[in-house]
Structures are given as C-alpha cells and as structure tokens.
Amino acid sequence: MRVPRKRYLVAAFVLLLLLVRFVGEIGLDRSPAERFRVVDIIDGDTVELTGGDRLRLLAIDCPEKGEQFHDSAALFLKRLVLGKTVEVSYSGRRRDGYGRLLGYVYLDTLMLNAVLVRNGLGHLYLFDDNWSDQRRIRQLLAAQNEAMRAGVGIWSIPHDREPGYFARKGSWRFHRPGCVSIEKLGFDEVLKFDSRNEAFKQGYSPCRNCRP
C-alpha cells in the first residue's frame, strides 16, 4: 500500500518537534563538563582535576606559600575534596591568564569558596568581571564578616595600624598611604578607610604590592 507523500511530511514534522523538545530539555540540565574529579591540591584556592586542568576558586584569595595559614588552607581543602567529584559554576571568564579554570566550586550543596572564607582561610577577592555575581558575593562577604568577628585564621594575625588606608574609586584593592598604585591620584579619586577591617567589610582586598 502506498503512503501519501503528505503523510510522510506530517510524520517528519512531528518527529522534528519531538527532537527539538528533547534537546531543549537536555539543555536545561547542567552540562557534564561542569562536573570534575579533584586529583590534587595545589594550595588553598587551587586544585588539579582529572585530565590535568587546574581550577582556581573564584572571588577568593588564600594565603600564598610561606604565609601564615597557607598550609592550613591547603590541608582543609584536601580533607574536603581530594578524590571527590565537585560541581563548578562559572562567571564571566572561564579561564585566567595562566589557563586555569575559574569558578564557584560546590560539594553537594556547600560552596567551598565560602567555606574557606568562613573558616578564616581566605578572603574575598573581586574583579570587575565577577561583580555581577551579587548573590554569591553577598554570601562570601557574610562569611568573611563572620570570620572577622570570630577572629579565626587570617583574622587572628596582628597588623601594625596605618594612619589610614586608601582605594582608587572603581577598583577592588586597598593600599597603604605611600603605595605607588595611588600616589598620583587626586583626593577626589580615592576612598579612605580608617582600618583594614573597614576596607574588608566593604568588599575590598589588599594590594599585592604594598601588602597593607
């Protein structure tokens, strides 16, 4: 029996609709590429993944090698995620200038970026391209303020008090008064903070040159 051509066209159209719907529904789920297994810990805010990629926890900064709490941060992260599969949520850029992936890292429902900050093992570290992540930034800032109040980890380290600290308007770093990064700025181009904690509470992080 010969099937009319019109019936073929209708069947093909229905099949196409079903395929479009199926693909669309798959797209709503997280991409498998956003799930990774952690095979090594580089430091408190960087891990190595299966396949050799390195992943930098976004919007935070942990102590560098040789600084207080560097080893504690790395060990803390190791106990949490080594050998486990994590989920990564990206922001603006997926990689930094070193080729590392950049993301908010989740173990089940825990955002590890915030867990490290809450335990005083890192602080908020923003760039313009992740400022739009307001919900996560509020979460990180709340975790940081909690750690500051408790005086845990890096917040237990004493610092000599400066006469004030300064930030260029529109930036996310604060500086000592004599830092070369701000020495040529006019009075109306800078913000002043009476203490380091005041700058941290507003989401600023220390300059890596003058190290306030």
- Percentage of residues in strands: 15-25%
Number of helices, counting only DSSP H or I runs of 4 residues or more: 5
Mean pLDDT: 85
Total strand segments? 12
Q: How many separate structural domains? A: 2
Describe the largest sheet.
Answer: 5 strands, mixed, barrel
**Termini separation (Å)?**
86 Å
CATH architectural arrangement of the largest domain:
Beta Barrel
The quaternary state of the protein chains shown equals single chain
CATH topology group of the largest domain: OB fold (Dihydrolipoamide Acetyltransferase, E2P)
The coarse overall form would be: globular
Secondary-structure element pattern, one letter each: HEEEEHEEEHEHEEEHE
Which consecutive residue ranges, at least 5 long each, have pLDDT under 50?
Answer: 8-33
Strand order of the largest sheet: 1-2-3-6-5
Tell me the Rg in angstroms: 24 Å
What structural class do helix, strand and pairing data support? alpha+beta
The CATH C-level class name of the largest domain: Mainly Beta
Which terms would index this structure?
single chain; 212 residues; alpha+beta; OB fold (Dihydrolipoamide Acetyltransferase, E2P); 2 domains; five-stranded mixed barrel; two-stranded antiparallel sheet; 5 helices
Strand and helix map with partners:
Layout: H1 5-27, E1 35-43, E2 46-49, E3 54-57, E4 60-61, H2 70-81, E5 85-89, E6 101-107, E7 110-111, H3 112-118, E8 123-124, H4 134-150, E9 165-168, E10 173-174, E11 190-193, H5 196-201, E12 205-206
Parallel strand pairs: 3-6, 10-12
Antiparallel strand pairs: 1-2, 1-5, 2-3, 4-8, 5-6, 6-7, 9-11
Helix pairs in contact: 3-4
